[in-house]
Amino acid sequence: MNTTTMVDDPEREPVSRRVLAMLRAVAAGRAEVSHSCEPDLYVDGLGCCDQYTAHQLASGGLVRPAVVGALGQRVRAELTPAGRAVLSTTLSASVRAG
Asked: How are strands ordered across the β-sheet holding 46-47?
């Protein structure tokens, strides 16, 4: 699997292309999350194929619901400031490397 290393925090695990794709979908407004302790991610209305990673994005503070909703309700997902930082740092590093 090809990964991109986080340049701002060398202690942090590498970010996979799948994680980047999920973060880009959220940033583009194409994603929803369910309100729960382990939120599921939906992209373009379909359940994400890697809910384990979706749960990690939520529990890691990179993705969150954009609005308050009822338990189990699907609402628009948004990047947190940390999620935006991961996405912008990783994309900036790939531009410099490319």
From this structure: 46-47, 41-43, 31-34, 74-79, 63-65
